């Protein structure tokens, strides 16, 4: 008995095309899987960085709001309008910083709309606070500051929407 002979596999033209099609589909599947893994890993890192940045910015803003509440409470009993306007100015600066932080944070595309909304409302809050920090009378102050609560509620809602989109 001799060694087995290797024979050549002969395929028809249609068979060759089918084998070629499966090779191409396999390569496409493999390439797609690798691309998806790379994009997913980058998105996870981006999402984590965005959450950390948002948490830091929000914690800083929360401290500023608490400080404002303390200052404005003390101002109402002793300092008058000038004292409250100074506190408004400091809080406006904190909202400006928060807004800038939002615009410089690289949010995932799935969260970008929510981040833009939060940036917008924080900017509007800063503008309002800068305006009330320069009014001349208590009546004007009260009239303008009445807009703060609705904007604050919008800010809270937009913050929670952004946080949810990052989870």
Describe the structure.
- The structure is a single chain.
- The radius of gyration is 30 Å and the shape is rod-shaped.
- The chain has helices spanning 13-104, 112-132, 138-145, 148-165.
- The protein has a single domain (15-165), classed as Four Helix Bundle (Hemerythrin (Met), subunit A), CATH 1.20.120.
- Helices cover 83% and strands 0% of the residues.
- Helix 1 packs parallel to helix 2, helix 2 (112-132) runs antiparallel to helix 3 and helix 2 runs antiparallel to helix 4 (148-165).
- The chain has 4 helices and no strands.
- With 167 residues, it is an all-alpha fold.
Oligomer: single chain
Major pleated sheet: none
Highest-level CATH class: Mainly Alpha
Q: How many DSSP helices?
A: 4
Q: From the helix content, strand content and strand pairing, which structural class follows?
A: mainly alpha
């Amino acid at each position: 008995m001799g060694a087995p002979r290797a024979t050549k596999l002969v395929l028809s033209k249609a068979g060759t095309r089918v084998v070629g099609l499966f090779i191409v589909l396999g390569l496409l599947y493999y390439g797609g899987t690798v691309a998806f893994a790379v994009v997913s890993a980058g998105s996870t890192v981006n999402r984590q960085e965005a959450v950390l940045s948002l948490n830091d910015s929000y914690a800083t803003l929360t401290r500023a709001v608490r400080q404002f509440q303390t200052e404005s409470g003390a101002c109402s009993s002793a300092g008058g309008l000038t004292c409250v306007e100074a506190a408004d100015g400091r809080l406006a600066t904190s909202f400006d910083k928060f807004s800038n932080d939002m615009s410089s944070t690289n949010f995932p595309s799935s969260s970008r709309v929510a981040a833009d909304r939060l940036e917008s409302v924080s900017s509007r809050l800063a503008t309002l606070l800068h305006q009330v920090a320069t009014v001349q009378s208590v009546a004007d102050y009260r009239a303008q500051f009445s807009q703060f609560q609705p904007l604050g509620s919008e800010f809270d809602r937009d913050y929670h929407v952004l946080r949810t989109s990052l989870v």
